[in-house]
Amino acid sequence: MNVWVIVVGAISLLFGAYRLRQDLRDFFGAIFVSLGGLIGLGWLIIKFLEWTGKYSIIWPILLSYGGGSLIIIGTIWLLIKNTSVMESKEGRSTAGKLSLVMGVNLIFILVVSIFLYQFRGIDALHHINVILMTILMIDLTFTLLFLCYLLYSLFYQMVPIKEHMNYIIVLGAGIRSEEVTPLLRSRLDKGIRYYKKNNGVKMIVSGGQGPDEPISEAAAMKRYLLSQGIPEHDIIEENQSKTTYENMLFSKKIIEMREGDKDYSVMFTTNNYHVFRAAMYARRAGLKADGVGSPTALYFLPTAMMREFIGILSRQKVLVALICLFWIAVGWYNF
Q: Which tens digit of pLDDT belongs to each residue from 205-229?
């Protein structure tokens, strides 16, 4: 591995660590740390292959060719298969096809990479190769960003939070009746677990009423908490929010009205795939709060994580534009 790649990896890791030391919810810090970690992992794998190559020719071949191919093909198959599982359990929806999109995307990356390698240096295909390379590099950049986001999301949930809390915010999720859904119930159950560990804690159930919801999510959550033996005086309804950002912002206003200038500690509960993005919204709302995630069915995770990542990119329009413009400029220069 080129020494400059190692230098870039080290700088990325240190810069990301510096940003995360100030706030673990920093998106760019998360991306830089993950990128540095991936480069370091790549270096270790290469060194391992070099070391094993001194003693056996079989291991490097299996790991670099057979193993790599099996991992890629297996990942593609699982993502495509997951789409049919999602449809059978959750019904047909556009979001439910996101794992199919990722699987097809990996096939595209694989096919285009092979094409560019096989037909490199052919003058008659120069312009086509440059266009394909530009598209491929844009695609690879966003795929790498998604991988970095995925890795840090997993890491963020492993960071321990404070034991004593004054407030627990339970983030709402869509309901179809006056009862909470299994997904929303898992968030509430997670909140109840921490409620029982903290004396004098208040639970804020946060979620407004959508156009297709019979009552507000907050009202449905309060009913569930009461049925689980949580005293009514320990439950606070926030029933105006429509988005995760509003969940955090409106809950913060309620807490500040109750606490004034006093110090307080807050945590929130949501599903595991949503924790890091929700923490980013808490940071944006000026609410110092970390979150814990309740378990999510495995078949739901690929689609959920991709949807979360798309949601983050929708708020990072400048970053998206810069990435696209950079690779287009490189392609134009080589055209």
A: 999 998 889 999 999 999 999 999 9
The answer to whether residues 306 and 286 belong to one domain is no
User: In a 10 Å sphere around its CB, with 0-12 CB exposed, 13-18 middle and 19+ buried, how is residue 286 labelled?
Assistant: exposed
Same domain, 90 and 30: no
In a domain, 189, yes or no: yes
CATH number of the structural domain spanning residue 179:
3.40.50.620
pTM score, whole prediction: 0.86
**One-letter-per-residue 3-state SS of the chain:** CCHHHHHHHHHHHHHHHHHHHHCCCCHHHHHHHHHHHHHHHHHHHHHHHHHHHCCCCHHHHHHHHHHHHHHHHHHHHHHHHHHHHHHHHHCCCCHHHHHHHHHHHHHHHHHHHHHHHHCCCCHHHHHHHHHHHHHHHHHHHHHHHHHHHHHHHHHHCCCCCCCCCCEEEEECCCCCCCCCCHHHHHHHHHHHHHHCCCCCCEEEEECCCCCCCCCCHHHHHHHHHHHCCCCHHHEEEECCCCCHHHHHHHHHHHHHHHHCCCCCCEEEEEEHHHHHHHHHHHHHCCCCEEEEEECCCHHHHHHHHHHHHHHHHCCCHHHHHHHHHHHHHHHHHHC
Residues 131 and 208 in one domain: no
Residue 179's contacts (CB-CB under 8 Å, 6 or more residues apart) are 220, 223, 224
Which structural domain range is residue 183 located in? 167-296
Number of structural domains found in the chain: 3
Within-domain flag for 7: yes
Q: Which stretches of the chain drop beneath a pLDDT of 50? A: 55
Each residue of 305-317: pLDDT tens digit?
Answer: 999 999 999 999 9
